[in-house]
Amino acid sequence: MKKFIKKFSIVLLLLISTFSINAQVNDTLAFDASISKSGYAAATVTIGDYDWSLSQAMQSSSPDAGDMKFGTNSLRMRRNAADYGYIQMEEDKPYGLGSISFYASRANFGSDRANIAPIFEAQYSTDAGTTWIPAGSAVDLDGIDALTKFEYSNINVTGNIRVRLIVTGGDSGKRFNIDSLILTGYSPTTVCEKPLNMGVVNNTDGSIDVTWDAPTNLPADGYQVAVFKTGTQPTSADFFKIPSSETNFSTDTLTNGTNLVDSTTYLVYLYSVCNEATVDHSDTIGSPVNVSIIPCDGPTNLVLVDNTDGSITASWTAPAGLPAEGYQIAIVDAGSTPLSSNFFTVPSSETTFTTDTLKNGANLANSSSYDVYIYSSCNTAKEYHSDTINANVQLAACAKPTNLVVVDNGDGSVTVTWDATTPLPGNGYQIALHSNGSTPNQYEYFNILSSETSFTTDTLTNGATLAGGLEYVVTMNAVCDAVNVSAPLNDTLAIILPTTCLSPTGLNAVSNGDGSITISWNVPTNIPSNGYLIAMASDQLVTDSVYISVNDGNQTTITTDTLPNGTQLDPYGNYFVYITSNCGSETSPIDSVAVSVAMPCVEVTNLTVTADADGTIGVTWDAPSYLPSDGYQIAIAVEGTLPTAGDYFDVDKTKTSFSSDTLNNGTAIILGNSYVVYFVSLCSSTQISDTLIDTVQTTALPCLAPSNLTVTNHQDGSIDISWTSATQPTNGYFYAIMPVGTVPSFPGDYVATSATSIANATTTTGSSALTFEAGETYKVYLISSCDSIQGNSGNVTENFTMALSVNTVNSEITGLFPNPTSSTLTIEMSASVGYVTIIDLTGKVVYTNEMTSNTTKINVEELPAGMYQVKVATTTATSFGKFIKE
Questions:
Q1: CA 832 to chain centre
Q2: How far apart are alpha carbons 597 and 602 in whole angstroms?
Q3: How far is the C-alpha of 231 from the C-alpha of 561, rounded, in Å?
Q4: Cβ contact 764:779 at 8 Å
Q5: Cα distance between the two ends of the chain
Q6: Nearest residue to 752 via CA among 794, 784, 723, 725
Q7: pLDDT (tens digit per residue) in 483-493
Q8: What 3 state SS string does 535-567 have?
Q9: Mind listing the pLDDT tens digit for each residue in 654-667?
Q10: What string of DSSP letters covers 464-503?
């Protein structure tokens, strides 16, 4: 066995240490996992892939309800008078910085949401933390009580980078939360395109070939190819470096020179390198390949036969394993050594080969001796073939002529041409015209001189005229002498009379890619007087009698986007085209050809994506001119992830809108998250439009405060409270009743309820119990409590004053009349010295004066109609009464 393997000059790529680089470029810190820091004192901890220094920052050892967070936990920071607080990377992040984003909110402990809120900055450093550069404007958390996204994009700094968040202002002790800190790597302005259509072939000789299609923009620094065993990860030592001008690569070793091992599976990885200095490269594509070395076994039992017609036949026994690229056979003069240009190629399925020429086209010479060489070819490119065997053959004296050609002259005659033998046959040639399937008798042969190489006739040897429309076989041989006659040559043709209506030839139909097809043909020998008739159908049966008439017999092409009956062609349909010559009194036989319209699958226009505040994502579009046969597919994916086949919704082709509040797997769309919508048209199982992409940010509804707060004062020491709300909050409502001037603390002074009314409220629970006192003014506080994203609403309030029942008079007030009154109110008292005060139901004092006798008359004519309290305060007691102003 002979095996020749071409070697390649290999340059190793030492730029990277692991296969995946993109996996290290972006860092997401959700702060859900424990970082073992539950106090505010400065300390260094590991978060994600890096060490961070945290001062006045911590993570609750068990999730705290006062922390604002998306998952199980978040990072809590505070402003401290002596230490402003920060989280700061203590080691470099490679691959630069593209953007910084995070979510922040004031914490929900005590008075964290009162007075001056924390202010902090996002900063980055390119010199290992010596100097810090603000990424953008500072974050002021004033009024930010739900996790809100802050983003600094287009930073795009290359090289090593560090990031920190540092407090710069606000009241000391105010706490806030940070969640979902995302650092993206440097993103070049252009995308490094990956190679396409990678193919890996085992050559069965211990080598592999890797091929690919170059991207539109060639990578400036070429390609990287790694070959390594499955179950391992490639290192820098496993990568070959290939110039950008190449789209193929072959090797029979690893980069360390070790031969590829038989019956072993290897992985091949390939990607483009656009800039080695900035580690700018494409995504990686890969493919497995099993290396198997198959011996290239040669043929045996070579036998040569002289066919006595100037040709020889070689036959052999095929090896057990057929050669992948067949056999190579050379015929050379006896005693000569064959060159590569002397070899014919024979398919591996064959075990015989017949020829009357050498490889260069020269005829085999009569009475000459030839050596025949044959070997199996397993891989021509790798020069991998078997040993060669050979044999010798001696040719007889009479060889047959070559290159027999028969032409119908269109006038009822035929012309036969051929190449003469060397030497010329002594008795010339014989030519017979006979019916297909028959063997000519001796009397059917015309005798031709050996000096001739052509012959024309319009009759048979018996003088009968050649019949139009019939098929004839032309048989020819050389006659060397009375004994030696060469083997026959044969050719077949149909004789056409000049008056016959001939079919056009070369019928062809092609799609123009715009919903139309172009039909072309060749004009026949006899140009039809009335042109041509063209029919079209979606099957092989012409059921439509409507034709396209082409009146000019010299015309050879038409273009149409409709059937002959005017129906528009299906842009994705398949048709059969039929054509016949129209000679007036008759038509020619019909010729046909199949064609696919093959309209491109066009994407929709005006794609619009919106996000509603209820968590629904809506998509609208304008349909293309030709609706896609299989409709549309729409995927909604979380930003940063790629959709799989199972993420797509199927949408009917008649639709131009779509909405959903879930992903295709049923997962609810999360308010406040970013999503990417992918949209394609499906014209058939193989025709898919380009993908349209749009990004949308969902927005959480604010927690809506209740409305129409109403307090009904029974004037007996109890009240009713009722309210309405546009949207039922997730966690219900909280209410508190406090004396005017006293502000309740949440949640300690509030009472939780899921109802929208409280009947006969006499007290409120909380940090201090309360019993109503007559004459005192109180305020009702009410809030809605939503989820962790929406938070709580603001307070709505309503005042009321608790009074005694009508006509109730205590020991200080002995008379209160008339009651009701429209002008003058007389008050009789047991004391003569003190103060009289009149209070309306809102708690407002509308009259006050000093009393100097036991009877006081007050003009109440200007007071609005309603119920009022009378308060009498003396040095010994305070008493209340009530009257009604009409």
A1: 92
A2: 14
A3: 56
A4: no
A5: 126
A6: 784
A7: 778 778 888 87
A8: EEECCCCCCCCCCEEECCCCCCEEEECECCCCC
A9: 999 999 989 999 88
A10: PBPPTT-EEEEEEEEB-SSS-BPPPEEEEEE---TTS-PP
| Model pLDDT for residues 804-860, shown as the tens digit of each residue | 443 344 467 888 888 889 899 998 888 878 888 888 877 788 888 888 888 888 998
What tokens appear for 148 in the block?
A: 């809100």
Non-local CB neighbours of 395 within 8 Å, separated by 6+ positions: 306, 310, 312, 364, 365, 366, 367, 368, 369, 370
Examine residue 747 and say whether the peptide bond preceding it is cis (omega within 30 degrees of 0).
yes
DSSP states of 624-648: PSS--TT-EEEEEEETT----GGGE
CB proximity list for 679: less than 8 A, separation 6 or greater: 603, 604, 607, 619, 621, 632, 633, 634, 691, 692, 693, 694
| CA pair distance 198, 268, nearest whole angstrom | 10
Q: Which residue has the tokens 């999730």?
A: 63
Q: In angstroms, rounded to a whole number, what is the distance separating the alpha carbons of residues 713 and 716?
A: 8
**Cα diameter, the chain:** 173
CA nearest to 764, candidates 735, 793, 788, 806: 735
Token pair belonging to 356: 């009357």
pTM of the predicted model, to two decimals?
0.30
Residue 136 C-alpha from the chain's centroid: 33
pLDDT per residue over 756-806, tens digit each? Answer: 888 777 655 554 556 677 667 788 888 888 876 667 777 777 777 665 443
229 is written with which tokens? 């065993």
> For 870, what's the count of Cα atoms within 13 Å in the CB-facing half-sphere?
31
Which of 603, 602, 620 has the alpha carbon at shortest distance from 611? 620
Peptide bond into 504 cis (omega under 30): no
What gap in Å lies between CA 446 and CA 434, rounded to an integer? 12
SS3 content of the chain, % helix, strand, coil (to 5): 0, 45, 55
Q: Which of 452, 398, 445, 457 is nearest to 420 (CA)?
A: 452
* Beta-bridge partner residues of 485: 479
Q: Which residues of 544-581 are buried (b: 16+ CB within 10 A; e: fewer)?
A: eeebbebeebeeeeeeeeebbeeeebebbeebbbbbbb
d(CA 649, CA 669): 15
Give the separation between CA 294 and CA 316, rounded to whole angstroms.
21
The tokens describing 424, both together, are: 């010329």
Q: 394 is written with which tokens?
A: 């001696």
Residues paired with residue 354 on neighbouring β-strands, in sequence order: 313
Query: CA 488 to CA 676: how far, in whole Å?
Result: 75
Neighbours of 778 (CB within 10 A): 22
Residue 203 tokens read as 């050559």
In this structure, what are the phi and psi dihedrals at residue 153, rounded to the nearest 5 degrees? -100, 175
What the block records as the tokens of 51 is 């060490």
Q: How far is the C-alpha of 383 from the C-alpha of 376, rounded, in Å?
A: 11
